[in-house]
Amino acid sequence: MAEARIPERTRGPEAATPYNTPAKWFHWVTVALMAVALPVGPLIKFVRDEDKMAFYALHESAGLTLLFVAIARLAWRLRHPPPPLPAHVPRPLRFAANGVHNTLYALLILQPVLGFLMTNAFGFPMRGETAYLGFIHFPKFMEPVEWLAEWLKTAHIIGGWTIAALLVAHLGGVVYHQAIRRDDLLLRMV
Ligand code: HEM
Question: Ligand 1 atom 35: the closest Cα is on which residue?
Fold first, then answer.
């Protein structure tokens, strides 16, 4: 019984206030897109040559959609600040959670931009087989620049693994709140 697990201090005025419905949708759509973009990126180099383009297309379309969703999400958040954490959450935990969330937001913008610029710098704009969502052909807006492409690729790889590490921390926080503190903070987002 969930009720029995909630400590006394999280009830009544101390109970966690939920996020609003659009904020929840933004969160779970981001999770779904990330579940595609993040694993497919590293997989590209391991798949057969004849499948590579399909993997590039999937990764790039999911990644670019993440950028659009992140921009819309941040615009929404600016006008609709998230509900405050309940008073019982200690300061170090608040600090850690805010740090992870803010860095993830920054990378949700930066990582797709790096990826998009990288493919263009390598000379593979999102058109033809890698058109956005399979049918939106972006114009080619730059000539290939080898050194820039390599630099962007390194930054994109670092960005990808940093996101993966932050997601582990984020999920660790969820497990900690649910299993150890038992304060049901997860319910704010469902
Ligand atoms: C938030 C969105 C994104 C995430 C989390 C992400 C993550 C990753 C990761 C983890 C890798 C593998 C790195 C490695 O080899 O260790 C990768 C590779 C790649 N990504 Fe992304 N990516 C995103 C968006 C994009 C976008 C929008 C594009 C292009 C439009 C893109 C283009 C590529 C390409 C071309 C590769 C293969 C690089 C190579 O091995 O040559 N990515 N991505």
Answer: 119
